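Margin note: ligand = flavin-adenine dinucleotide.
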Amino acid sequence: MSDTRPDVLVIGGGVIGLSCALALARGGRAVTVLERATVGSGASHGNCGTITPSHALPLAQPGVVAQGLKWLLKPDAPLRIAPTLDPARLAWLARFALNCTQAQVERVAPAKAALLNHSRDLLERFVQAEGIDCEFGHEGELQVFRTRRALDAASVELDVLRAHGVPVEAWDGARVEREEPALKPGVAGGLYWPSDAHIRPDRYVAALAERVRAAGVRVCEQTEVTAFERDGTRLVAVRAGNERFVAPQVLLAAGAWSPLVARDLGLRVPIQPGKGYSITYSRPIRAPRRPLVLAEPRVCVTTWASGFRLGSTMEFAGYDDTLNRVRLDALVRGATEFLHEPVGAEHVEDWWGWRPMTTDDLPILGASERVRGLWFATGHGMLGMSMSNATAELVAAQMLDQDTPLDPDPYRPNRFAL
Ligand SMILES: Cc1cc2nc3c(=O)[nH]c(=O)nc-3n(C[C@H](O)[C@H](O)[C@H](O)COP(=O)(O)OP(=O)(O)OC[C@H]3O[C@@H](n4cnc5c(N)ncnc54)[C@H](O)[C@@H]3O)c2cc1C
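Resulting structure:
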């Protein structure tokens, strides 16, 4: 049994854990990352790679519960909730439903917008300064609607987003078809989000891991945290298999696994895995010029020089790790309604990932009020790539006892009594 003593232990080597590890190491801390599998193998691998201030409104909104109930009977609907008696999942769903109010939208939207806008700027600067080859693109994102009804419904909240510093342009159908010849005719209109961007997530995370190691961080892969040691309310050590790791600060960044890891500390982290899928192909000849969100089927289409990905869908089925063919097929069907060439010639990868979903759609960032020495950077839901840089800056500043770049209050763990 070895006994290792860094300043900070980071649990989880996804985009969030790695980004925080880098910020802490560059802030002068000795950091060790503990990763149960390999770095970047969780949700950070096959996601859509879009960087989206446009997604600043919370998922929990008035009307979402009614829409969700309509979708319950359709196995290929954009949202699926598997029947369950699991108390944690039922409690999560109830809490989410209670959050579907206008008051919550007004509380959450400014906090999401602040994190997303700042993170998008930091990401571009980071990619440029470090010369990271992750196919960063800043052509914005286009949300495409085939029905007037869906376009009108989505247009209601645009002023709220503009007020929070997220620019958006409404394009008519003719303009959308002119700008994106990859689309089939019959488009009702589009919303163009100029400040959105995109990256190839697997390449970005691989480059991030390289920088983390170069900054002197010890990265322990195949090292699953299984238990903790406490002295009263203070966290003393972390156990991973036969190894015992000791550090004054421990940062939980285990994405959707965070509640499972924290259970040993007696903490109930209100995160459920929101399973999403993607299919990656070689790039079609008539590929879209910028990332698209196909509004009605809710399919995200990302094009890179190196490939093409259809992704999204949200499934609450607990920690189910099977690949659901119905949901993968729904991605292709949705893309076929909109695109001349919905798939590329070469099929590269079918993938699923667990998004770490919180009940209020804000991440959990900062010090635990219940366990001294424990910190959180988790719960980034659908937006972990988009929020990673600002998350790292904010969390590292707090752990290093420095001034924070953003108001940390809306993200604090104490809103969930953690
Ligand atoms: C289909 C899909 C599309 C998406 N598209 C986008 C997008 O376009 N833009 C965007 O911003 N976000 C997107 N997301 C969301 C984004 O992928 C996540 O928010 C983000 O990857 C979360 O990062 P993370 O580091 O918190 O979690 P993860 O990447 O899942 O990392 C957590 C890590 O913790 C490790 N771990 C777990 N348990 C333990 C343990 N006991 N001990 C040690 N290590 C442990 C895991 O192995 C894993 O590597 C998408 C997600 C999905 C599923």
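Residues 137 and 219 are 29 Å apart (CA to CA).
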